[in-house]
Amino acid sequence: MSLEKLLADRLAQAFAAVACGPVDPVVRRSQHADFQSDAALPLARRLGRPPRDIAIEVVGRAELADLCTAVEVSGPGFINLTVADPALGSLLSTMAADTRLGVAPSAIPATVVVDYSAPNVAKEMHVGHLRSTVIGDAAVRLLEWLGHRVIKANHLGDWGTPFGMLIEHLLDLGESEAAHELSVGDLDSFYKAARVKFDADDAFKQRARLRVVALQSGDEQTLRLWRMLVAESEKYFLTVYDQLGVLLTDKDFYGESYYNDMLAPVTDELDRLGLLRDSGDAACVFPDGFTGRDGQPLPIIVRKRDGGYGYGATDLAAIRHRTRDLGATRLLYVVGLPQRQHFEMVFAVARQAGWLHPPAVAEHIGFGSILGPDGKMLRSRAGGSIKLVGLLDEAVTRAAELARQKNPDLPDAAIAEVARAVGIGAIKYADLSTDRIKDYVFDWQRMLSLDGNTAPYLQYAHARIRSIFRRAGIEPTGTPIVVMHPAEHALALELANFGAVVTGVEQTLEFHRLAGYLHTLATTFSGFYEHCPVLRAEDEVRDSRLALCDLTARVLRQGLHLLGIATPDRM
Ligand code: ARG
Protein backbone atom coordinates (compact mmCIF):
# COMPACT_ATOMS: atom_id res chain seq x y z
CA MET A 1 0.00 0.00 0.00
CA SER A 2 1.27 3.48 -0.79
CA LEU A 3 2.41 5.75 2.00
CA GLU A 4 -0.21 8.30 1.09
CA LYS A 5 -2.93 5.67 1.37
CA LEU A 6 -1.55 4.40 4.67
CA LEU A 7 -1.66 7.89 6.19
CA ALA A 8 -5.06 8.58 4.68
CA ASP A 9 -6.51 5.38 6.17
CA ARG A 10 -5.32 6.26 9.66
CA LEU A 11 -6.59 9.82 9.41
CA ALA A 12 -9.88 8.62 7.94
CA GLN A 13 -10.59 6.64 11.09
CA ALA A 14 -10.01 9.67 13.29
CA PHE A 15 -12.05 11.94 11.01
CA ALA A 16 -14.91 9.43 10.97
CA ALA A 17 -15.01 9.41 14.76
CA VAL A 18 -15.07 13.21 14.91
CA ALA A 19 -17.58 13.72 12.08
CA CYS A 20 -19.74 10.68 12.91
CA GLY A 21 -19.52 9.55 9.31
CA PRO A 22 -17.02 8.80 6.57
CA VAL A 23 -14.68 11.60 5.49
CA ASP A 24 -12.03 11.57 2.78
CA PRO A 25 -9.00 13.07 4.52
CA VAL A 26 -7.50 14.24 1.17
CA VAL A 27 -3.88 13.64 2.02
CA ARG A 28 -1.44 15.38 -0.31
CA ARG A 29 2.26 16.07 -0.56
CA SER A 30 3.02 19.47 0.87
CA GLN A 31 5.61 22.23 0.90
CA HIS A 32 5.27 22.73 4.64
CA ALA A 33 5.66 19.15 5.81
CA ASP A 34 5.83 15.79 4.08
CA PHE A 35 2.05 15.52 3.74
CA GLN A 36 -0.94 17.66 4.51
CA SER A 37 -4.65 17.01 5.04
CA ASP A 38 -7.10 19.86 4.43
CA ALA A 39 -10.25 17.92 5.19
CA ALA A 40 -11.10 19.78 8.39
CA LEU A 41 -11.92 22.97 6.49
CA PRO A 42 -14.89 21.81 4.44
CA LEU A 43 -16.19 19.94 7.53
CA ALA A 44 -16.43 23.09 9.63
CA ARG A 45 -19.74 24.27 8.23
CA ARG A 46 -21.35 20.84 8.46
CA LEU A 47 -20.31 20.30 12.05
CA GLY A 48 -20.78 23.91 13.07
CA ARG A 49 -17.34 24.03 14.65
CA PRO A 50 -14.18 26.02 13.89
CA PRO A 51 -11.98 23.98 11.52
CA ARG A 52 -8.97 24.31 13.82
CA ASP A 53 -10.89 22.62 16.65
CA ILE A 54 -11.83 19.78 14.37
CA ALA A 55 -8.23 19.37 13.22
CA ILE A 56 -6.95 19.36 16.79
CA GLU A 57 -9.43 16.71 17.80
CA VAL A 58 -8.57 14.57 14.76
CA VAL A 59 -4.87 14.83 15.57
CA GLY A 60 -5.60 13.78 19.14
CA ARG A 61 -7.47 10.70 18.00
CA ALA A 62 -5.35 9.62 15.04
CA GLU A 63 -3.04 6.68 15.61
CA LEU A 64 0.03 7.81 13.73
CA ALA A 65 2.82 7.29 16.26
CA ASP A 66 4.45 4.47 14.28
CA LEU A 67 4.36 6.43 11.00
CA CYS A 68 5.01 10.06 11.90
CA THR A 69 7.43 12.04 14.01
CA ALA A 70 5.29 15.15 13.93
CA VAL A 71 1.56 15.71 13.45
CA GLU A 72 0.71 19.40 13.71
CA VAL A 73 -2.20 21.68 13.10
CA SER A 74 -1.36 24.84 11.20
CA GLY A 75 -3.19 27.87 9.82
CA PRO A 76 -6.98 27.66 9.80
CA GLY A 77 -6.93 23.87 10.30
CA PHE A 78 -4.45 22.10 8.08
CA ILE A 79 -2.96 18.91 9.47
CA ASN A 80 0.76 18.63 8.68
CA LEU A 81 2.40 15.22 8.79
CA THR A 82 6.10 14.48 8.97
CA VAL A 83 6.91 10.87 8.23
CA ALA A 84 9.28 8.99 10.54
CA ASP A 85 12.55 7.77 9.03
CA PRO A 86 12.19 4.21 10.38
CA ALA A 87 8.72 3.97 8.82
CA LEU A 88 10.13 5.15 5.49
CA GLY A 89 12.99 2.71 5.74
CA SER A 90 10.79 -0.30 6.33
CA LEU A 91 8.37 0.78 3.60
CA LEU A 92 11.19 1.08 1.09
CA SER A 93 12.77 -2.19 2.15
CA THR A 94 9.48 -3.93 1.39
CA MET A 95 9.21 -2.10 -1.91
CA ALA A 96 12.77 -3.06 -2.86
CA ALA A 97 12.10 -6.74 -2.11
CA ASP A 98 9.12 -6.74 -4.49
CA THR A 99 9.66 -7.25 -8.23
CA ARG A 100 6.56 -5.08 -8.77
CA LEU A 101 8.02 -2.28 -6.64
CA GLY A 102 5.08 -2.38 -4.27
CA VAL A 103 2.51 -1.77 -7.01
CA ALA A 104 -0.10 -4.50 -6.75
CA PRO A 105 -2.20 -5.49 -9.77
CA SER A 106 -5.70 -4.06 -9.75
CA ALA A 107 -8.13 -5.81 -7.41
CA ILE A 108 -10.82 -5.49 -10.08
CA PRO A 109 -9.22 -6.32 -13.43
CA ALA A 110 -11.25 -4.95 -16.33
CA THR A 111 -11.40 -5.78 -20.01
CA VAL A 112 -10.20 -2.59 -21.67
CA VAL A 113 -10.27 -1.81 -25.38
CA VAL A 114 -7.72 0.77 -26.42
CA ASP A 115 -8.62 2.24 -29.82
CA TYR A 116 -5.49 3.98 -31.07
CA SER A 117 -3.05 4.73 -33.88
CA ALA A 118 -5.69 4.23 -36.60
CA PRO A 119 -3.96 5.62 -39.70
CA ASN A 120 -5.70 5.48 -43.07
CA VAL A 121 -4.89 3.05 -45.86
CA ALA A 122 -2.92 4.52 -48.76
CA LYS A 123 -2.35 7.74 -46.84
CA GLU A 124 0.73 8.88 -44.95
CA MET A 125 0.49 8.63 -41.16
CA HIS A 126 0.55 12.16 -39.86
CA VAL A 127 1.79 13.52 -36.57
CA GLY A 128 -1.70 13.14 -35.09
CA HIS A 129 -1.37 9.41 -35.65
CA LEU A 130 2.05 9.59 -34.02
CA ARG A 131 0.52 11.11 -30.87
CA SER A 132 -2.26 8.54 -30.83
CA THR A 133 0.24 5.72 -31.25
CA VAL A 134 2.55 6.96 -28.50
CA ILE A 135 -0.17 7.76 -25.96
CA GLY A 136 -2.12 4.59 -26.76
CA ASP A 137 1.02 2.49 -26.37
CA ALA A 138 1.65 3.94 -22.92
CA ALA A 139 -1.98 3.26 -21.97
CA VAL A 140 -1.67 -0.36 -23.07
CA ARG A 141 1.58 -0.86 -21.16
CA LEU A 142 0.34 0.71 -17.95
CA LEU A 143 -3.04 -1.02 -17.92
CA GLU A 144 -1.51 -4.39 -18.74
CA TRP A 145 1.03 -3.96 -15.97
CA LEU A 146 -1.82 -3.32 -13.56
CA GLY A 147 -3.35 -6.66 -14.52
CA HIS A 148 -6.12 -5.55 -16.87
CA ARG A 149 -7.03 -7.53 -19.96
CA VAL A 150 -6.20 -5.11 -22.73
CA ILE A 151 -7.41 -5.40 -26.31
CA LYS A 152 -5.43 -3.27 -28.75
CA ALA A 153 -7.74 -2.03 -31.49
CA ASN A 154 -6.05 -0.34 -34.42
CA HIS A 155 -9.11 1.21 -36.07
CA LEU A 156 -7.51 1.48 -39.49
CA GLY A 157 -9.32 3.65 -42.04
CA ASP A 158 -9.64 0.89 -44.63
CA TRP A 159 -13.10 1.40 -46.10
CA GLY A 160 -15.25 4.04 -47.75
CA THR A 161 -15.66 6.03 -50.94
CA PRO A 162 -11.98 7.00 -51.48
CA PHE A 163 -11.28 3.36 -52.27
CA GLY A 164 -13.01 3.71 -55.62
CA MET A 165 -10.43 6.18 -56.87
CA LEU A 166 -7.56 4.40 -55.10
CA ILE A 167 -8.34 1.10 -56.78
CA GLU A 168 -8.72 2.72 -60.22
CA HIS A 169 -5.40 4.48 -59.75
CA LEU A 170 -3.83 1.19 -58.74
CA LEU A 171 -5.09 -0.35 -61.98
CA ASP A 172 -3.72 2.58 -64.00
CA LEU A 173 -0.30 2.16 -62.43
CA GLY A 174 -0.25 -1.60 -62.76
CA GLU A 175 -0.34 -3.85 -59.73
CA SER A 176 3.36 -4.38 -59.23
CA GLU A 177 4.26 -0.70 -59.59
CA ALA A 178 1.47 0.22 -57.15
CA ALA A 179 2.60 -2.39 -54.65
CA HIS A 180 6.12 -1.02 -54.88
CA GLU A 181 5.07 2.60 -54.25
CA LEU A 182 2.98 1.60 -51.29
CA SER A 183 5.45 -0.76 -49.69
CA VAL A 184 8.21 1.86 -49.64
CA GLY A 185 5.80 4.22 -47.97
CA ASP A 186 5.14 6.51 -50.90
CA LEU A 187 1.60 6.77 -49.64
CA ASP A 188 1.07 10.46 -50.02
CA SER A 189 2.02 10.67 -53.67
CA PHE A 190 -0.12 7.64 -54.38
CA TYR A 191 -3.12 9.19 -52.70
CA LYS A 192 -2.55 12.61 -54.23
CA ALA A 193 -2.15 11.25 -57.75
CA ALA A 194 -5.46 9.44 -57.39
CA ARG A 195 -7.08 12.57 -56.05
CA VAL A 196 -5.78 14.76 -58.87
CA LYS A 197 -7.18 12.42 -61.51
CA PHE A 198 -10.46 12.19 -59.65
CA ASP A 199 -10.82 15.97 -59.61
CA ALA A 200 -9.66 16.59 -63.18
CA ASP A 201 -10.86 13.64 -65.21
CA ASP A 202 -14.59 12.90 -65.53
CA ALA A 203 -14.09 9.47 -67.02
CA PHE A 204 -11.82 8.53 -64.11
CA LYS A 205 -14.38 9.90 -61.68
CA GLN A 206 -17.06 7.74 -63.25
CA ARG A 207 -14.84 4.64 -63.06
CA ALA A 208 -14.12 5.43 -59.39
CA ARG A 209 -17.84 5.68 -58.63
CA LEU A 210 -18.60 2.35 -60.26
CA ARG A 211 -15.68 0.84 -58.40
CA VAL A 212 -17.14 1.91 -55.05
CA VAL A 213 -20.38 0.18 -55.98
CA ALA A 214 -18.46 -2.96 -56.97
CA LEU A 215 -16.55 -2.86 -53.69
CA GLN A 216 -19.68 -2.47 -51.61
CA SER A 217 -21.45 -5.28 -53.42
CA GLY A 218 -18.55 -7.62 -52.77
CA ASP A 219 -17.21 -8.05 -56.30
CA GLU A 220 -14.36 -10.54 -55.93
CA GLN A 221 -11.90 -8.90 -58.33
CA THR A 222 -12.44 -5.51 -56.68
CA LEU A 223 -12.04 -6.99 -53.21
CA ARG A 224 -8.75 -8.56 -54.27
CA LEU A 225 -7.39 -5.17 -55.32
CA TRP A 226 -8.71 -3.56 -52.15
CA ARG A 227 -7.01 -6.24 -50.03
CA MET A 228 -3.79 -5.49 -51.81
CA LEU A 229 -4.02 -1.79 -50.96
CA VAL A 230 -4.74 -2.64 -47.35
CA ALA A 231 -2.02 -5.27 -47.06
CA GLU A 232 0.69 -3.03 -48.55
CA SER A 233 -0.28 -0.14 -46.30
CA GLU A 234 -0.36 -2.39 -43.24
CA LYS A 235 3.12 -3.60 -44.06
CA TYR A 236 4.29 -0.02 -44.16
CA PHE A 237 2.58 0.93 -40.90
CA LEU A 238 4.19 -2.07 -39.22
CA THR A 239 7.64 -0.78 -40.16
CA VAL A 240 6.77 2.53 -38.48
CA TYR A 241 5.57 0.70 -35.36
CA ASP A 242 8.74 -1.31 -35.34
CA GLN A 243 10.85 1.82 -35.62
CA LEU A 244 8.85 3.37 -32.78
CA GLY A 245 9.11 0.27 -30.62
CA VAL A 246 5.40 0.15 -29.82
CA LEU A 247 3.46 -3.01 -29.00
CA LEU A 248 1.11 -2.93 -32.02
CA THR A 249 1.35 -5.97 -34.30
CA ASP A 250 -0.41 -7.31 -37.39
CA LYS A 251 -2.90 -9.01 -35.06
CA ASP A 252 -4.20 -5.66 -33.81
CA PHE A 253 -5.60 -4.32 -37.08
CA TYR A 254 -9.33 -4.05 -36.57
CA GLY A 255 -9.99 -1.69 -39.43
CA GLU A 256 -13.32 -0.10 -40.22
CA SER A 257 -14.07 -2.96 -42.66
CA TYR A 258 -13.98 -5.41 -39.74
CA TYR A 259 -17.39 -4.05 -38.73
CA ASN A 260 -19.00 -4.25 -42.20
CA ASP A 261 -21.17 -7.24 -41.40
CA MET A 262 -22.41 -5.61 -38.22
CA LEU A 263 -23.61 -2.41 -39.89
CA ALA A 264 -26.96 -3.70 -41.18
CA PRO A 265 -27.95 -5.35 -37.87
CA VAL A 266 -26.89 -2.23 -35.97
CA THR A 267 -28.99 -0.06 -38.27
CA ASP A 268 -31.97 -2.38 -37.85
CA GLU A 269 -31.61 -2.29 -34.11
CA LEU A 270 -31.46 1.51 -34.09
CA ASP A 271 -34.57 1.49 -36.24
CA ARG A 272 -36.43 -0.92 -33.94
CA LEU A 273 -35.50 1.25 -30.98
CA GLY A 274 -37.09 4.20 -32.78
CA LEU A 275 -33.79 6.09 -32.91
CA LEU A 276 -33.36 6.21 -36.68
CA ARG A 277 -34.74 9.13 -38.65
CA ASP A 278 -34.79 9.99 -42.32
CA SER A 279 -33.09 13.24 -42.96
CA GLY A 280 -32.76 14.28 -46.57
CA ASP A 281 -30.55 11.72 -48.21
CA ALA A 282 -29.52 9.68 -45.20
CA ALA A 283 -30.85 7.72 -42.24
CA CYS A 284 -29.52 9.41 -39.11
CA VAL A 285 -29.64 9.34 -35.33
CA PHE A 286 -29.99 12.59 -33.45
CA PRO A 287 -28.62 12.10 -29.93
CA ASP A 288 -30.21 14.27 -27.25
CA GLY A 289 -28.41 17.43 -26.35
CA PHE A 290 -26.34 18.07 -29.48
CA THR A 291 -27.17 21.06 -31.61
CA GLY A 292 -25.25 22.96 -34.26
CA ARG A 293 -24.58 26.70 -34.40
CA ASP A 294 -27.97 27.20 -35.96
CA GLY A 295 -29.65 25.48 -33.02
CA GLN A 296 -30.66 22.52 -35.17
CA PRO A 297 -30.10 18.99 -33.78
CA LEU A 298 -26.88 17.38 -35.03
CA PRO A 299 -27.02 14.00 -36.76
CA ILE A 300 -24.82 10.96 -36.81
CA ILE A 301 -25.12 9.71 -40.35
CA VAL A 302 -25.86 5.99 -40.22
CA ARG A 303 -26.74 4.94 -43.76
CA LYS A 304 -26.56 7.10 -46.84
CA ARG A 305 -29.11 6.78 -49.61
CA ASP A 306 -26.54 5.08 -51.87
CA GLY A 307 -26.36 2.28 -49.29
CA GLY A 308 -22.95 3.30 -47.91
CA TYR A 309 -22.52 3.71 -44.17
CA GLY A 310 -20.97 6.67 -42.32
CA TYR A 311 -17.87 6.83 -40.14
CA GLY A 312 -20.19 7.16 -37.12
CA ALA A 313 -22.13 4.02 -38.00
CA THR A 314 -18.89 2.05 -37.88
CA ASP A 315 -18.09 3.49 -34.47
CA LEU A 316 -21.55 2.54 -33.22
CA ALA A 317 -21.07 -1.02 -34.46
CA ALA A 318 -17.64 -1.09 -32.81
CA ILE A 319 -19.03 -0.02 -29.43
CA ARG A 320 -21.75 -2.62 -29.55
CA HIS A 321 -19.19 -5.28 -30.51
CA ARG A 322 -16.76 -4.23 -27.80
CA THR A 323 -19.21 -4.22 -24.91
CA ARG A 324 -21.47 -7.04 -26.02
CA ASP A 325 -19.13 -9.51 -27.76
CA LEU A 326 -15.77 -8.71 -26.17
CA GLY A 327 -17.21 -8.00 -22.71
CA ALA A 328 -15.22 -4.80 -22.36
CA THR A 329 -16.09 -2.45 -19.53
CA ARG A 330 -13.67 0.34 -20.38
CA LEU A 331 -13.44 1.73 -23.90
CA LEU A 332 -10.65 4.20 -24.56
CA TYR A 333 -10.43 6.25 -27.76
CA VAL A 334 -7.04 7.86 -28.20
CA VAL A 335 -7.94 10.33 -30.92
CA GLY A 336 -7.23 14.04 -31.45
CA LEU A 337 -9.45 16.70 -29.89
CA PRO A 338 -11.13 17.71 -33.18
CA GLN A 339 -13.07 14.45 -32.93
CA ARG A 340 -14.31 15.13 -29.38
CA GLN A 341 -17.86 15.94 -30.44
CA HIS A 342 -18.02 12.94 -32.74
CA PHE A 343 -17.20 10.63 -29.82
CA GLU A 344 -19.54 12.36 -27.40
CA MET A 345 -22.35 11.88 -29.88
CA VAL A 346 -21.45 8.26 -30.57
CA PHE A 347 -21.30 7.52 -26.83
CA ALA A 348 -24.66 9.25 -26.31
CA VAL A 349 -26.32 7.14 -29.02
CA ALA A 350 -24.72 3.96 -27.66
CA ARG A 351 -26.14 4.77 -24.23
CA GLN A 352 -29.59 5.46 -25.66
CA ALA A 353 -29.44 2.18 -27.57
CA GLY A 354 -28.44 0.25 -24.46
CA TRP A 355 -25.00 -0.76 -25.74
CA LEU A 356 -23.10 1.25 -23.18
CA HIS A 357 -24.26 1.09 -19.61
CA PRO A 358 -22.60 0.84 -16.19
CA PRO A 359 -20.21 -0.61 -15.27
CA ALA A 360 -19.04 -0.07 -18.88
CA VAL A 361 -17.69 3.38 -19.65
CA ALA A 362 -16.30 5.00 -22.79
CA GLU A 363 -13.69 7.76 -22.60
CA HIS A 364 -12.30 9.97 -25.31
CA ILE A 365 -8.60 10.29 -24.53
CA GLY A 366 -8.19 13.47 -26.57
CA PHE A 367 -5.00 15.30 -27.38
CA GLY A 368 -3.86 18.56 -28.92
CA SER A 369 -1.71 19.20 -31.98
CA ILE A 370 2.02 19.14 -32.52
CA LEU A 371 3.15 22.59 -33.60
CA GLY A 372 6.17 23.68 -35.59
CA PRO A 373 8.61 26.35 -34.37
CA ASP A 374 6.33 28.96 -35.96
CA GLY A 375 3.49 27.96 -33.66
CA LYS A 376 1.46 26.56 -36.55
CA MET A 377 0.67 22.90 -37.25
CA LEU A 378 3.89 20.96 -37.82
CA ARG A 379 4.56 20.69 -41.57
CA SER A 380 7.43 19.71 -43.80
CA ARG A 381 9.63 22.45 -45.29
CA ALA A 382 7.67 22.16 -48.52
CA GLY A 383 4.49 22.76 -46.54
CA GLY A 384 3.18 19.21 -46.88
CA SER A 385 2.56 16.69 -44.14
CA ILE A 386 5.65 15.43 -42.36
CA LYS A 387 6.74 11.93 -43.22
CA LEU A 388 6.87 10.09 -39.95
CA VAL A 389 9.67 7.75 -40.96
CA GLY A 390 11.89 10.72 -41.83
CA LEU A 391 11.15 12.33 -38.51
CA LEU A 392 12.02 9.18 -36.56
CA ASP A 393 15.20 8.64 -38.58
CA GLU A 394 16.28 12.20 -37.88
CA ALA A 395 15.70 11.68 -34.15
CA VAL A 396 17.96 8.65 -34.15
CA THR A 397 20.65 10.40 -36.21
CA ARG A 398 20.67 13.39 -33.91
CA ALA A 399 20.81 11.15 -30.84
CA ALA A 400 23.74 9.23 -32.35
CA GLU A 401 25.74 12.47 -32.68
CA LEU A 402 24.96 13.23 -29.08
CA ALA A 403 25.96 9.78 -27.88
CA ARG A 404 29.24 9.94 -29.78
CA GLN A 405 30.11 13.30 -28.26
CA LYS A 406 29.43 12.07 -24.76
CA ASN A 407 30.98 8.67 -25.22
CA PRO A 408 33.75 8.73 -27.83
CA ASP A 409 34.98 5.24 -26.98
CA LEU A 410 31.69 3.37 -27.10
CA PRO A 411 31.70 0.81 -29.96
CA ASP A 412 29.47 1.55 -32.97
CA ALA A 413 26.91 -1.11 -32.14
CA ALA A 414 26.48 0.29 -28.65
CA ILE A 415 26.16 3.83 -30.05
CA ALA A 416 23.44 2.63 -32.41
CA GLU A 417 21.51 1.07 -29.55
CA VAL A 418 21.80 4.14 -27.35
CA ALA A 419 20.87 6.39 -30.28
CA ARG A 420 17.70 4.48 -30.93
CA ALA A 421 16.69 4.47 -27.26
CA VAL A 422 17.46 8.17 -26.85
CA GLY A 423 16.14 9.42 -30.20
CA ILE A 424 12.85 7.55 -30.10
CA GLY A 425 12.61 8.05 -26.34
CA ALA A 426 13.02 11.80 -26.78
CA ILE A 427 10.16 11.99 -29.27
CA LYS A 428 7.87 9.89 -27.09
CA TYR A 429 8.77 11.73 -23.91
CA ALA A 430 8.25 15.17 -25.46
CA ASP A 431 4.75 14.00 -26.23
CA LEU A 432 3.94 12.23 -22.97
CA SER A 433 5.41 14.84 -20.65
CA THR A 434 3.04 17.60 -21.75
CA ASP A 435 -0.56 17.66 -20.65
CA ARG A 436 -2.07 15.75 -23.57
CA ILE A 437 -4.99 18.09 -24.14
CA LYS A 438 -2.55 20.91 -24.89
CA ASP A 439 -0.70 21.56 -28.12
CA TYR A 440 3.07 21.37 -27.91
CA VAL A 441 5.92 22.68 -29.99
CA PHE A 442 8.16 20.13 -31.64
CA ASP A 443 11.65 21.25 -30.69
CA TRP A 444 14.69 19.04 -31.37
CA GLN A 445 17.00 21.06 -29.12
CA ARG A 446 14.73 20.80 -26.15
CA MET A 447 13.65 17.19 -26.44
CA LEU A 448 17.23 16.00 -26.89
CA SER A 449 18.66 18.14 -24.12
CA LEU A 450 20.46 16.30 -21.34
CA ASP A 451 18.97 18.53 -18.72
CA GLY A 452 15.40 19.45 -18.09
CA ASN A 453 12.29 17.34 -18.20
CA THR A 454 13.46 15.15 -21.08
CA ALA A 455 13.97 11.49 -21.89
CA PRO A 456 17.77 11.81 -22.24
CA TYR A 457 17.98 13.38 -18.77
CA LEU A 458 16.05 10.51 -17.21
CA GLN A 459 17.82 7.86 -19.24
CA TYR A 460 21.13 9.39 -18.22
CA ALA A 461 20.09 9.47 -14.55
CA HIS A 462 19.28 5.78 -14.79
CA ALA A 463 22.52 4.90 -16.60
CA ARG A 464 24.54 6.89 -14.08
CA ILE A 465 23.17 4.81 -11.22
CA ARG A 466 23.89 1.63 -13.12
CA SER A 467 27.45 2.83 -13.60
CA ILE A 468 27.92 3.19 -9.83
CA PHE A 469 27.44 -0.54 -9.54
CA ARG A 470 29.50 -1.27 -12.62
CA ARG A 471 32.44 0.83 -11.45
CA ALA A 472 32.42 -0.77 -8.02
CA GLY A 473 32.06 -4.22 -9.55
CA ILE A 474 29.10 -5.07 -7.34
CA GLU A 475 25.52 -6.15 -7.77
CA PRO A 476 22.67 -4.78 -5.68
CA THR A 477 21.84 -7.00 -2.71
CA GLY A 478 18.69 -7.14 -0.68
CA THR A 479 20.01 -5.11 2.25
CA PRO A 480 17.44 -3.22 4.31
CA ILE A 481 17.17 0.52 3.69
CA VAL A 482 17.86 2.80 6.64
CA VAL A 483 16.85 6.43 6.23
CA MET A 484 18.80 9.03 8.24
CA HIS A 485 20.01 12.01 6.24
CA PRO A 486 17.44 14.64 5.14
CA ALA A 487 18.42 13.99 1.51
CA GLU A 488 17.69 10.30 2.05
CA HIS A 489 14.38 11.26 3.61
CA ALA A 490 13.46 13.37 0.58
CA LEU A 491 14.43 10.63 -1.86
CA ALA A 492 12.58 8.00 0.15
CA LEU A 493 9.39 10.07 0.11
CA GLU A 494 9.55 10.29 -3.68
CA LEU A 495 10.21 6.59 -4.11
CA ALA A 496 7.34 5.70 -1.80
CA ASN A 497 5.00 7.74 -3.99
CA PHE A 498 5.48 5.65 -7.15
CA GLY A 499 2.46 3.41 -6.66
CA ALA A 500 0.09 6.28 -6.00
CA VAL A 501 1.24 8.04 -9.18
CA VAL A 502 0.79 4.91 -11.30
CA THR A 503 -2.70 4.18 -9.99
CA GLY A 504 -3.62 7.83 -10.50
CA VAL A 505 -2.60 7.59 -14.15
CA GLU A 506 -4.55 4.35 -14.46
CA GLN A 507 -7.67 6.47 -13.94
CA THR A 508 -6.82 9.70 -15.76
CA LEU A 509 -4.36 8.53 -18.44
CA GLU A 510 -2.52 11.79 -17.83
CA PHE A 511 0.93 10.51 -18.56
CA HIS A 512 2.52 13.88 -17.91
CA ARG A 513 1.95 13.14 -14.23
CA LEU A 514 4.05 10.00 -14.42
CA ALA A 515 6.66 11.86 -16.48
CA GLY A 516 6.71 14.74 -14.00
CA TYR A 517 7.04 12.29 -11.15
CA LEU A 518 10.03 10.57 -12.76
CA HIS A 519 11.67 13.91 -13.39
CA THR A 520 11.22 14.97 -9.75
CA LEU A 521 12.53 11.58 -8.65
CA ALA A 522 15.66 12.03 -10.79
CA THR A 523 16.35 15.54 -9.50
CA THR A 524 15.74 14.42 -5.91
CA PHE A 525 18.18 11.62 -6.51
CA SER A 526 20.77 14.14 -7.69
CA GLY A 527 20.35 16.01 -4.41
CA PHE A 528 20.83 12.80 -2.48
CA TYR A 529 23.90 11.81 -4.48
CA GLU A 530 25.41 15.23 -3.97
CA HIS A 531 24.94 15.19 -0.19
CA CYS A 532 25.32 11.54 0.69
CA PRO A 533 28.50 9.70 -0.21
CA VAL A 534 27.64 6.18 -1.33
CA LEU A 535 30.70 4.08 -2.10
CA ARG A 536 32.82 6.05 0.37
CA ALA A 537 30.38 5.53 3.26
CA GLU A 538 30.85 3.02 6.10
CA ASP A 539 29.60 -0.56 5.71
CA GLU A 540 25.91 -0.50 6.67
CA VAL A 541 25.31 3.04 5.50
CA ARG A 542 26.99 2.20 2.24
CA ASP A 543 24.83 -0.89 1.71
CA SER A 544 21.66 0.97 2.54
CA ARG A 545 22.58 3.82 0.19
CA LEU A 546 23.42 1.38 -2.56
CA ALA A 547 19.99 -0.16 -2.03
CA LEU A 548 18.45 3.31 -2.36
CA CYS A 549 20.39 3.86 -5.59
CA ASP A 550 19.24 0.56 -6.98
CA LEU A 551 15.62 1.16 -6.04
CA THR A 552 15.75 4.57 -7.73
CA ALA A 553 17.15 3.01 -10.90
CA ARG A 554 14.44 0.36 -10.88
CA VAL A 555 11.65 2.88 -10.43
CA LEU A 556 13.07 5.05 -13.22
CA ARG A 557 13.37 2.02 -15.45
CA GLN A 558 9.87 0.74 -14.73
CA GLY A 559 8.34 4.21 -15.02
CA LEU A 560 10.02 4.87 -18.37
CA HIS A 561 9.13 1.37 -19.51
CA LEU A 562 5.46 2.15 -18.84
CA LEU A 563 5.87 5.15 -21.13
CA GLY A 564 7.39 2.90 -23.80
CA ILE A 565 10.88 4.35 -23.33
CA ALA A 566 13.98 2.17 -23.19
CA THR A 567 16.68 2.58 -20.55
CA PRO A 568 20.14 1.58 -21.79
CA ASP A 569 22.55 0.53 -19.04
CA ARG A 570 25.25 2.87 -20.29
CA MET A 571 25.10 6.08 -22.20
N1 ARG B 1 -8.76 6.92 -38.98
C1 ARG B 1 -9.22 8.03 -38.22
C2 ARG B 1 -8.39 9.28 -38.56
O1 ARG B 1 -7.35 9.17 -39.16
C3 ARG B 1 -9.11 7.81 -36.73
C4 ARG B 1 -9.96 6.71 -36.18
C5 ARG B 1 -10.17 6.84 -34.70
N2 ARG B 1 -10.91 5.77 -34.12
C6 ARG B 1 -12.21 5.59 -34.21
N3 ARG B 1 -12.77 4.57 -33.61
N4 ARG B 1 -12.98 6.41 -34.89
O2 ARG B 1 -8.81 10.37 -38.23
Short description:
The chain is of the alpha/beta class. The chain contains 21 helices and 13 strands.
Rg over CA atoms: 28 Å
What can be said about the biggest beta sheet?
A: 4 strands, antiparallel
What ions, cofactors and ligands are bound? arginine
Low-confidence stretches: none
* Tally of helical runs: 21
Can you list the strand order of the major beta sheet?
1-2-4-3
Given the C-alpha coordinates, what overall shape results?
globular
Which helices and strands, and how do they pair?
Blueprint: H1 3-19, E1 27-29, E2 35-37, H2 40-47, H3 51-61, E3 68-74, E4 78-83, H4 85-96, E5 111-115, H5 127-145, E6 149-153, H6 162-173, H7 175-183, H8 187-200, H9 202-216, H10 220-244, H11 260-272, E7 276-279, E8 282-285, E9 300-304, H12 311-325, E10 330-333, H13 340-353, E11 361-364, E12 370-371, H14 388-406, H15 412-432, E13 440-441, H16 444-447, H17 455-472, H18 486-496, H19 498-508, H20 511-531, H21 539-562
Parallel strand pairs: 5-6, 5-10, 10-11, 12-13
Antiparallel strand pairs: 1-2, 2-4, 3-4, 7-8, 8-9
This protein binds arginine.
